[in-house]
Structure formats: C-alpha cells, structure tokens
Design a protein that fits this description.
Elements: E1 22-27, E2 30-35, E3 41-45, H1 53-66, E4 70-74, H2 78-93, E5 100-104, H3 108-114, H4 116-121, E6 124-127, H5 136-151, E7 155-161, H6 167-178, H7 186-207, E8 215-220, H8 224-237, E9 243-244, E10 250-251, H9 252-268, E11 274-275, E12 279-280, H10 289-300, E13 309-312, H11 323-345, E14 353-357, H12 363-369, E15 372-375, E16 385-389, E17 392-397, H13 402-418
Helix pairs in contact: 1-2, 3-5, 6-7, 7-8, 8-9, 9-10
Length: about 425
C-alpha cells in the first residue's frame, strides 16, 4: 500500500456540538448557564425530608462540594414549602450558592401561590405536565406555575416521565393510532406522547409570556434504548435545553452502567445540556455517588474535567502485590478530597494526569504519558520504582516508604505547577 494513502490522518472522535438555547439558573450573583455553549451541567437530588431544613441543607452542601451544580429538592407539602426558605438560608450561611430546583407534583400551583418565600428561594421549578391537574384544571394549574416562574424570574424544567404520563393525551394518541392503516407499535405511541407532552407544554408556557430561553425539557424513561430513541427525536423537534437521565437507573453496577451507556451515546451525538444519574444508593452509600458517576461520564467523554485523572493498571500475574492498587486508591481519594479547596487554590489542577502502574511492561510508558507517574516493581522485578515527571525520569524510589514518598511528590508537584 502506498505510504501516502492516509496522509490526511485518521479522523478525531469528539462529541458533536450542541444546538440549543441557553437558560440561566441563578441564585444571587451566582449564575449557572445551561444549554448553548455552556458546559454540560451535573445535577443531583436530595433524598432527605425537606421539612428537615438542616438535614436537607447538609446533604445539599455535600452534593455541591462533590460537584453538583444544581440540586433538586422535593416540595410536596405545605410544610416542605415552608421549609425551603430556611434550607436556602442555611446554605447561604455556609457559603454554598448552588441553585435549588423545586420538584413539584399535583399541588405545585397551590404551593407556589401560597408560599411566595418558597417560590423566591428556589432558582428553578420542575413541572410534570402529567401531574398538574386533569381536564379543565390542567391548563389553569399549569398556568399558575408558569405565572409564578415569570413573576420571580425563575427557569422551569418541564419534566415528562413515562411513569406519570398525561393519560388523557396518551389515550387520544392511542385512539388516533388505531385509525391508521398501519398502526404504530404501542411503545412508539408512548414515545410520541412523551415528546408531544413536553413540547406542547413548552409552547403553552411561551403563549403565556414565558421566554423560550428559560424553558428546559426532559422526557424520562427507565430503558436505555427507549431513552436514546426519545431524545434523538426530541432533539430534532425543538431547540430547548435538554435534561438527560434515566428515571430509575437502579442500584450499583446496573445503575451505573445503564446511565453511562445511555447518556454517553446521546452526549456524543450532541444531545443533552444537563445530566443526572438517578442511582439508588447502596445501604450506607453516600448520596454523592450519583454526582461522582455523572462527573466521570462527562470527563470520560472529554466534555468536562472535574478532578485529576489517575491511570492505574488492572493487575495481572506480573503484579501479585497489591501495592499499586493501594497507592492508586490512596492518591485518587486524596485528590478528590482536596478538590473543593484546590478548585480556587490551584486553578487548572483538575487537568492533572497521574499514573500508578504495577510492572515494567506498560509502567514506564504510561508514566511518561502522565504529568507525574510511578512504575512500581512487579513480581520478580528489582525493588525499585522509577518516577516520571513531565515525561522525564526524575528519580527512583526504594524501600518501605515508596507510597508515602510518592504521595508527597504529587503534592509538591501540584503546589509548584498550579500554585
């Protein structure tokens, strides 16, 4: 084959650019832009009783420090609505300016009307068009929520969910489908109902005077292929900012893999402006795990950078020692724990690349590609660990304190490079 056949090179792979409007979700002077050329944002949701203002504020702080840029809270009762301003006050006292999203179902129109302090303390309202009232009440009660959003200059997310879909709309579309010469499958009709509900609700809000820039949409389902099908079509039919997420991703590995699979495919296609991983926590697991996973999805795709990257080999018969595993975890945990402070103290530190490798096969090469890396001795290798800094071998560590010494080398490198 001629040597110049591939002179143009192999095409680089990267996510497509998004083509949506840009919304502003703000609290005070802190503005989180969503859509357009803004970064894909990470969201999360509390699982505390909102009536417990202090407990809710503490969990919100944990989520925000973990990297959640927007946090949703349940507002389902008068007591919860009354507690929202106190939650906001607690956060402000702690210096946590993350915008809060009120999650409303069934009685949102009444709560936003009767509790104006709640309406003001929230930065965005989540409205489910399937749960705002039936028949003649639907448009009126939906309109009351939109009026509140306009009165207090808040963004709204019109969030359709296939578990609480507008049954009147679904029945209408099913009846129309039955009259077709070649009816669509039932699932296709449900897809159409989800999309129609979201877009028609957004148009209704605009007809009431709301700016298109302050409307976000979501069509949540729990199946990976269903989510991909719905959002591909939704993205073709509108340019509102889109919130992505499986409505019930599940627990542990299942929830993580399902979310990563669905969200990554759509984000690579330029679909999605804000994401949430709706992970069911394992018993005793921190709520912040869903934020970590969402951040990792965006970082893996090259869309965002949140924390320094630690590359570590999986281990094999050459690495019977667990030293490299322990060191990789120690470094990764340390970097993550320091990031809330380092984001302001060491700008750019999130781009740091660290390699902790376990033997001579790939160890030196991977370490050279990282900003700072160490190649630990594998089984039968000499008890020496070369350290590479900015692609050059800087030193060799020996003895019983290799882990502690490398830990200090990483800290010193960060202070010198990013300080």
């Amino acid at each position: 084959m001629p040597a110049d056949t591939h002179l143009q090179g192999i095409a680089m792979s990267q996510p497509k650019a998004r083509q949506t409007l840009q919304a502003r979700v703000a609290w005070g002077d802190h503005v989180v832009t969503v859509g357009g050329d803004a970064p894909v944002r990470v969201q999360s949701m509390t699982n505390t009783d909102t009536v417990d203002a202090i407990g809710t504020a503490i969990q919100i702080k944990e989520l925000a420090l973990a990297g959640s840029e927007l946090v949703r809270i349940t507002v389902n009762t008068p007591e919860a609505a009354a507690a929202v301003p106190h939650v906001r006050e607690q956060l402000d006292r702690m210096g946590i300016n993350v915008p809060l999203i009120g999650d409303f179902h069934y009685n949102g129109h009444r709560l936003l009307t009767e509790f104006p302090d709640c309406a003001q303390a929230l930065s965005k309202y989540r409205i489910n068009p399937g749960n705002v009232g039936k028949g003649d009440k639907h448009d009126k009660q939906f309109g009351q929520m939109i009026e509140a959003a306009m009165r207090y200059n808040k963004a709204v997310r019109i969030g359709v969910n296939w578990g609480s879909l507008d049954q009147e709309l679904l029945a209408k579309l099913m009846d129309e489908n039955a009259l077709r010469a070649k009816p669509f499958e039932a699932k296709q009709v449900m897809y159409e109902a989800l999309i129609t509900s979201a877009i028609d609700s957004a148009k209704l809000a605009q007809s009431m005077g709301m700016s298109a820039n302050q409307i976000l949409l979501s069509c949540k389902v729990s199946g990976v292929q269903d989510l991909i099908a719905v959002y591909r079509e939704l993205a073709q039919r509108c340019n509102y900012p889109l919130h992505l997420g499986l409505t019930e991703a599940g627990m542990g590995t299942k929830g993580t893999v399902a979310s990563a699979t669905a969200l990554s495919i759509l984000l690579q296609e330029g679909i999605g402006d804000t994401i949430r991983v709706s992970l069911t926590p394992q018993p005793g697991e921190a709520r912040t795990q869903e934020v970590v996973i969402a951040s990792e999805i965006l970082q893996a795709l090259g869309l965002r950078t949140f924390v320094p990257s630690v590359t570590a080999c999986p281990g094999c018969g050459r690495t019977t020692s667990t030293t490299f595993q322990e060191m990789a975890k120690s470094i990764d945990d340390f970097l993550r724990a320091q990031m809330p402070v380092w984001r302001t103290q060491y700008p750019g530190v999130e781009n740091l690349k660290v390699a902790v490798m376990g033997c001579i096969v790939n160890g030196p090469g991977e370490s050279k590609h990282a900003d700072i890396g160490i190649s630990l001795p594998g089984s039968g290798e000499a008890p020496a660990a070369p350290v590479f800094i900015d692609g050059e071998k800087a030193m060799t560590l020996r003895g019983d304190n290799i882990a502690q010494e490398f830990h200090q080398i990483v800290e010193t490198y960060i202070e010198k490079r990013f300080g």
